[in-house]
Design a protein that fits this description.
By secondary structure, this protein is of the alpha/beta class. Among the domains are: 143 residues, 3-Layer(aba) Sandwich (Rossmann fold), CATH 3.40.50; 124 residues, 2-Layer Sandwich (GMP Synthetase, Chain A, domain 3), CATH 3.30.300.30. Helix content is 33%, strand content 22%. It has 21 helices and 30 strands. The strands form 8 sheets. The chain has an 8-stranded mixed sheet, sandwiched between helices. Helix 7 links the parallel strand 6 and strand 7. The chain is globular and about 70 Å long. The protein starts with a helix and ends with a helix. The model has no long low-confidence stretch (mean pLDDT 94). The structure holds adenosine-5'-triphosphate and magnesium ion (MG). Magnesium ion binds next to loops.
């Protein structure tokens, strides 16, 4: 038997295991192994948060913790002042850690740059001065539209240093998406690149943006990073408006002391993924946000900044990249990997090559990436030494147990705890997750709220649902919560604080609580299915379908049905690009019936070569719903590949 086959068999064997204790060797050296931390937070929540906030360096210490007089506009640590870039850089350098690597950057073609904390501080000071030279002042918005190059972190921290508010747009988005986000936030400066590399190709960025930039009257300057200069593709520069990053750095002064900011000063705006509708411009604060991300990054990843090499694979264009590739790890003085490329370029084993090369000990990624690796096969990770890994994390979607077990067995080699972290762009930092040295994990459950965070499940009238399925709410404010939606205060109140009042944050996800009190986030409220009066979660049905041997990925939605109210339609991708047959269809229906019940059997299966996903890899069920109900598709601006929907519409029209 090959090693791959025996690992697959091991994954199948573990399918009956309900929960996993923290591995003994991990537990022996973990920081948090005592449940007293939860009690401490419960006894005096505000004192607990104040203590976490005091782990940061404050220029002026705060005396009040929470001001809730204008709920739901909560204010944290409001009379304190601090600077985020100071906390991420200066204080580590001052403590003698200037030589520590902040980022091992790895380019697509294998280029490497080791950037120390001292290097990063130098670049950030210069770029902060360069921004000032371009007229940027405290409170101005600076757009950032860059590939995964170190300059993206430099630009973010330089903004933070002078109190400019950054608005990062994911590099894979279109010129129109950039225009819209810059227009709405009235950005003064945009930092972008001449070109971006993607899977061996060089794509023009700046010249493609140019027509859109014409429509932005507030934008006075564009800074262009040379991220892949190609003489064959000239990058047109407009005199007086556009300046190369290198040139701006060369003329800028070297020293730029960090400017103290009020704790509530906005640190950034970031648009949410757009899985459920029109993206929202989420605003985060300086003091509360930094408190939340540094605390959770230390606790949930059991960080040891002296020994760990930490890699969050998310692009900085997402909240995960902001909180756990930039602010969290830098505030904690961690060493990170920053990887420019795609997971399968130049080959599907590149991630494991990177883990081996830098000795990555903590890996944080998304279920969609894990499922892709499963599809590519166990032979790729098997070619590399993964023994440096000690902790694995996941975020972004519910993780189906099969993917969890594969991650645990093939990547973690049954040695690494998995932290399934539930949170949102809005929450700023991790809300529900295991503490890896303490919590027994159950595949597919994010377990419990972290100390300091209070959650509950309620029915639509707001009554607690002690056990079973309900709507997830956060019942107390927390420091890293969003402060508003940019320019849309009324939408902020309506979206999060109208359903259950200004005291309870309505998450918009449904979840189940089991007899042990574990939370199982099932997915968005909109994705819940109602078959013959029974509420089923799309994630639960999808997990059952994906557990079938032949299936690689699945998404289910409902369509109206005269008899059952709603009927389940499943979009299914088979492993190895195989086409579906009526036999496989019958087999999958039988399989779902055996796992959940007859009720959950899809009434239709549509074979899909691919599923519609956001650029961050989440399945956009609302588009599938539009397609099966033959409606016009809703907002598609954050859809990764529009071709997928065209192909699926053809399949639906031809009866699957
Ligand atoms: P939009 O709000 O624009 O529709 P989005 O909700 O996908 O987009 P994010 O803020 O990136 O944007 O994602 C948060 C959502 O992702 C959560 O509300 C939840 O539905 C899902 N999610 C994140 N992590 C997990 C997890 N560990 N388990 C289950 N679901 C998760
Ligand atoms: Mg959301």
């Amino acid at each position: 038997m090959t090693e791959g086959a025996s690992l697959d068999q091991r994954v199948a064997e573990l399918a009956t295991v309900e929960s996993f204790e923290p591995p003994a060797a991990f537990r022996a050296r973990a920081h948090a192994t005592d449940a007293a931390l939860f009690e401490k937070a419960d006894q005096d929540r505000l004192a607990f948060w104040a203590e976490q906030a005091r782990a940061l360096d404050w220029e002026k210490p705060f005396s009040t913790v929470l001001n809730d007089t204008d709920a739901p506009f909560y204010r944290w640590f409001e009379d304190g002042t601090l600077n985020a870039s100071y906390n991420c850089l200066d204080r580590h350098v001052a403590a003698g850690l200037g030589d520590r690597i902040a980022y091992h950057w790895r380019g697509e073609e294998g280029e490497e740059r080791a950037i120390s904390y001292a290097d990063l501080l130098d670049s950030v000071q210069r770029f902060a001065n360069a921004l000032r030279d371009l007229g940027v002042r405290k409170g101005d918005v600076v757009g950032i539209y860059l590939p995964m190059v170190p300059e993206v972190a430099v630009a973010m921290l330089a903004c933070a240093r002078i109190g400019a508010v950054h608005n990062v747009v994911f590099g894979g988005f279109s010129a129109e998406a950039v225009r819209e986000r810059m227009a709405v936030s009235r950005a003064k400066v945009l930092v972008t690149a001449d070109h971006a590399r993607r899977k061996g190709k060089l794509n023009a960025v700046k010249s493609v943006l140019d027509p859109a930039l014409e429509e932005l009257p507030d934008l006075s300057h564009v800074v262009v990073v040379r991220a892949g200069a190609d003489p064959a593709q000239p990058c047109p520069m407009r005199e007086g408006r556009d300046v190369y990053y290198d040139d701006a750095m060369a003329t800028a002064a070297a020293s730029c002391p960090a400017e103290p900011m009020e704790a509530e000063h906005p640190l950034f705006i970031l648009y949410s993924s757009g899985s459920t509708g029109k993206p929202k411009g989420i605003v985060h604060s300086t003091g509360g946000y930094l408190t939340g991300v540094s605390y959770t990054h230390r606790l949930v990843f059991d960080l040891d900044p002296e020994r760990d090499v930490y890699w969050c694979t998310a692009d900085v264009g997402w909240i995960t990249g902001h909180s756990y590739a930039v602010y969290g790890p830098l505030a904690n003085g961690a060493t990170s990997v920053m990887f420019e490329g795609a997971a399968d370029y130049p080959h599907p084993g590149i991630w494991w090559e990177v883990v081996e090369r830098y000795g990555v000990s903590i890996l944080y990624t998304a279920p969609t990436a894990i499922r892709a690796c499963m599809r590519w096969g166990t032979e790729y990770p098997a070619r590399h030494d993964l023994s440096s890994l000690r902790l694995l994390g996941t975020v972004g979607e519910p993780i189906n147990p099969k993917a969890w077990l594969w991650y645990h067995t093939v990547i973690g080699q049954e040695r690494c705890p998995i932290v399934d972290t539930w949170w949102q762009t809005e929450t700023g930092s991790i809300m529900i997750a295991p503490l890896p040295g303490l919590t027994e994990t159950k595949p597919g459950s994010a377990t419990h709220p972290v100390p300091g965070v209070c959650a509950d499940l309620v029915d639509s009238s707001g009554q607690t649902v002690p056990e079973g399925t309900g709507l997830l709410v956060l019942t107390e404010p927390w420091p890293s919560m969003l402060r508003t939606l940019y320019g849309e205060e009324e939408r902020y109140v309506r979206a999060y604080f109208s359903e259950f009042g200004p005291e309870r944050y309505a998450v918009g996800d449904s979840a189940r609580r089991d007899t042990d009190g574990y939370y199982w986030v099932l997915g968005r409220v909109d994705d819940v299915l109602n078959v013959s009066g029974h509420r089923l979660s799309s994630g639960e049905v999808e997990s059952a379908i994906v557990a079938h041997d032949k299936v690689a990925e699945a998404a289910v939605v409902s369509e109206p049905d005269e008899i059952t109210g709603e009927a389940i339609v499943a979009f299914v991708t088979l492993r190895g690009g195989v086409q579906g047959s009526p036999e496989t269809e019958a087999d999958i229906r039988e399989h779902v019936s055996a796992r959940i019940g007859k009720l959950a059997r899809p009434s239709r299966i549509i074979w899909a070569d691919d599923l519609p996903k956001t650029r961050s890899g989440k399945i956009m069920r609302r588009l599938l719903r539009d397609a099966v109900q033959d409606r016009e598709l809703g907002d598609v601006t954050t859809l990764n590949d529009p071709g997928v929907m065209t192909a699926l519409r053809d399949r639906i029209a031809s009866g699957g």
